Fold this sequence. Notes:
The chain is α/β, with parallel strands linked by helices. The protein has two domains: 2-138, no CATH class; 139-309, no CATH class. The protein is 21% helix and 32% strand. The protein has seven helices and 19 strands. It has helices at residues 2-7, 37-43, 106-113, 154-163, 181-188, 230-240, 288-301, and strands spanning 19-20, 27-31, 48-50, 55-60, 63-71, 78-88, 93-97, 121-125, 131-135, 140-148, 172-180, 195-198, 211-214, 225-228, 245-248, 262-266, 274-276, 279-283, 307-308. Helix 4 crosses helix 7 (288-301). Residues 1-8 have low confidence and may be disordered. Zinc ion binds next to loops. Zinc ion binds at residues 229-230, 250, 252, 266-268.
Amino acid sequence: MRTEERAATRPTDPAAPNVIPSRYRQVAVAAVPSLDPDWLVEHFTDREVYFRTRFVVARYDDRVALVEVDRKATDDLFTLTVAARVLAGPDDCAVVVDESVDTGVPSQLAAAAEAFPGVKCVVVEGSYSHVSFILNPAPIRVRLIDVVPPGPAKLLDQVRRVLATAEDLPPVVVVPDLFDSRRLLAEAYDVPPRDVLIPCRGSGMDFPGSTVSFLDERPPVRDWTLLGCERSNQIHHWFYGSTPERVDICPRQWLTSDGQSTLTRCCLLQEGIESERTGTVVPWGASLAEVRAALETIVDRSEVVWTHI
Ligand SMILES: [Zn+2]
């Protein structure tokens, strides 16, 4: 099995996007006296390496280069390299040392690389001192639309938690696009409405100049403005038999036609996910499994190319 894997090994295209090792054991670190490309090729050819080693982060002072080696097939623990090539020289590499980064998760590598826009290869020394890299980072950028307050933005938090453990997904970077519900109300009225009704209590829901009521407490009806979604509107009608003035805060309204990699949530979706041209939608109270499924859908629809080797 291992031999077949090795026989199938092809040299990595140094221009391929999102090249990421699938196992940190493939990556060795070596202190060297020079990062000159010719020297590196010669030094790492016909050299003994651990049988899993495919990449070497060559380090000289605080600079590094990324070298790929081809090995002789073996069933032993160590073998000889038969060729070496420099995938990224010292001028094309940046180094991140951050023990909070799990280098086995592509999205975590991509997030670390965000600090170095345009850099070809970002080498990361992360948790457990494991070293890995992302070559030619080109993550899928997912626009995440949500509304706050109430805060913090729950869906954004869920997406980050899912991506933090998504070992099998290509690199995804989330780009938050958060709308402020207080601002939506302020933009709808020249002076704040005297009475505001919001779906439930939540942090950050302060409305100076307005008396605030909470729909889930079923307060006596007033001439208020509902700051809520269509579902709240329906509940209001059930409670009071009337339709109030309303400022809609359902994030679905901000989906646009170019939203292929957009994720948001909707009050009217009960369970599962909906995927359409304008984006992918999860329920207002989505589970982590639904958030994960939505991200998988976005990834499948994207044309991301990644090399997980
Ligand atoms: Zn909605």
